[in-house]
Fold Cobalamin biosynthesis protein CobD.
Amino acid sequence: MMIFTIVMAIAVDYLLGEPKRFHPLVVFGALADRLEKILWQDNRLSGIMALLIILTATVVLAFILSTMAAANAIMAWLIPVLVVYITIAPRSLTEHAMAVSAPLCAADIEQARYTLSMMVSRDTDELDERAIASATCESVLENGSDGIFAAIFWFCLFGLYGVLIYRVVNTLDAMWGYKNKRYRYFGWAAAKLDDGLNYLPARLVALSYSLVGNFSQGIQCWFEQGRYWKSPNAGPVMAAGAGSLNIILGGEAVYGGQLQSRPALGCGNTVEAEDIAKALDLLKRSLILWVLVIAILDWIF
């Protein structure tokens, strides 16, 4: 049943892509934003309270959906498929990355910068071809981990409860996890919980990226470079992915007008526009690997 749900959810995503209107995560984001306006104070306690309220509501929602799924055979497979479908988005990630790759390969730097700005939080106005390609590959590798694989991981462990709680926390981290004046304390709890929930999935993804690419380089870059990145989970994932692809990512980037010096990740060649498609292919091969492993575990247990 578990592998059936995952395969069907991936198939639905492949056929339909993300919902264009009334996406549940967009609705959730609007509700979370309203709750933030009510509870925000410049301390950790207010953020913890907001997180607990949202987690409680998520557990209630998961209970209602689980009860509905137990009502009959059709709902038993339909509800989990729909929930997993809305919590992963491999087609959307691919479309966003290719929307950068296509103009970049055609030497339309301005359009590539614009489409990249919809994927990443860094400043894109002054990026050259290499920096655009690097930022896109980083986004593909990192978002593949926390946007796709981690959701599948928690669904496999705890079903609807696991995948919904994970996706809610990950979305809150994207909204509140900034280390700026407003969110340094209010977003602390969401960011820390997201780090905890992503710890094991990220390392499984780093292993997967290595297994389906250049294994020795992926593993070496993961262990030698991953721990120096600002994020404890993005570092291993991107280092392994870059090493597996034989490219170099990382380096300086500008966020909100502030230059950040980031360590280099990976080894080998300077990243080029064509490497975006290679990063997407690495993601696809890793997803196939996960499906095969889950199918085997589902059959055994």
About this structure: The mean pLDDT is 96. The longest strand covers residues 247-250. The radius of gyration is 19 Å. The longest helix spans residues 129-176.
